[in-house]
Amino acid sequence: MAKLFLVYFSPSGSTEKAVREVAKGIEGLPVEAIDLLTPASRKKRYTFATEDVVIFGMITAGKLFTLSDEIFACLHGDNTPFIGIITYGNGYYGIALSEMLARAKNQGFKVAALGAFVSRHSMDTAIAEGRPDSDDLRMMRDFGRKAYEKILGGDMELHNTPGTNWSSWEMGNKVIAYREEHPDEPYALPPSCKAKIITDSCIKCGTCVRHCPVDAIDIEAKTFDVDKCIGCWGCINRCPKHAIISTSKEVEDIMRSFGEASTKRLEPEIFM
Ligand SMILES: Cc1cc2nc3c(=O)[nH]c(=O)nc-3n(C[C@H](O)[C@H](O)[C@H](O)COP(=O)(O)O)c2cc1C
Ligand code: SF4
Ligand code: SF4
Q1: What would the pLDDT profile of 181-226 be if each residue is shown by its tens digit?
Q2: Cβ(241)–Cβ(82) under 8 Å?
Q3: What domains are defined for the chain?
Q4: 3-state DSSP call for residue 243?
């Protein structure tokens, strides 16, 4: 094989970490990372050769996150082997893997392996705290190694195709059912859930501005453009001073019941 590409959309960094861990299972190839977080990065066109291998990772919310149309539109395979992973917050990933499979095929990739891995919940870091732990990390590396062995053996077919992942949470299952009925509707967090403030702890370091996927932050005015904001929680999680705080009562209520319903530890799931 020619080159290993690590491609990810990871607002709070867990998915990037997972992609890099999967890549540790693959030895002997030059590596190039493509971070699709910024608007400028998604304006480019990325083409991959038949001899390359792509590990792709994305945050999910019962389906692939907002911007998945834009993200997949800039990736072009030429029967390029594709190892896809999603991370989710120990609740449910719904239709995310089957959606990734369809989108990757549509963009010219050969989907050899897919994996769903639990990471701490970016909207409430007490949920799935400490994940991925050492067992998860080992499973990510094993997944990468097995997927690469499969590709080297010339087998690019998924013999074990992902379906819909359901939840132990009644509200979660309603969301998943809705996603199944409206697979083409992009994920969008309701505007009422995006309310947040920047407190006086802000030191104007610019980290949040540099990592906002949609340029929605005006740090001088300490305001957010709610119409642009996709509610990815990246600014909240990346701020070194914890100066950005969600003020949405709705989010507080949703996350309380999500946390109460999602106490059972979920394990990684792989499909090859
Ligand atoms: C707006 C939003 C919605 C989310 N929805 C779900 C969900 O429906 N189920 C779940 O298990 N995790 C959910 N999560 C948690 C993320 O999928 C998880 O924390 C992921 O690892 C974050 O990836 P990142 O660190 O790369 O941004 C959601 C996170 C956000 C910000
Ligand atoms: S990351 Fe935090 S401290 Fe830095 S500019 Fe943004 S809000 Fe201020
Ligand atoms: S402003 Fe919105 S889109 Fe930008 S990083 Fe914060 S939550 Fe994400």
Answers
A1: 999 999 999 999 999 999 999 999 999 999 999 999 999 999 999 9
A2: no
A3: 4-166 (3.40.50.360), 195-247 (3.30.70.20)
A4: coil
The three-class DSSP label of residue 248 is: coil
The phi and psi torsions of 133 (rounded to 5 degrees) equal -95, -170
Structure-token pair, residue 252: 């507080």
**Residue for token pair 């996603």:** 179
- Is the shortest distance between the CB of 140 and ligand 3 below 6 Å? no
Q: How many residues does the chain have?
A: 272
Model confidence pLDDT, tens digit, residues 159-185:
999 999 999 899 999 999 999 999 999
**Could you give phi then psi for residue 143, rounded to 5 degrees?**
-60, -45
Tokens 């094993």 locate to 142
Tokens at 213, concatenated: 């996927």
Backbone angles phi, psi at 57, to 5 degrees: -140, 145
Helices 170-181 and 249-261, packing angle to 10 deg: 100
> What ligand is nearest to the CA atom of residue 234?
3
> Which of 122, 166, 178 has most ligand 1 atoms within 8 Å of CB, for mutation?
122
What residue type is assigned to position 45 of the chain?
R
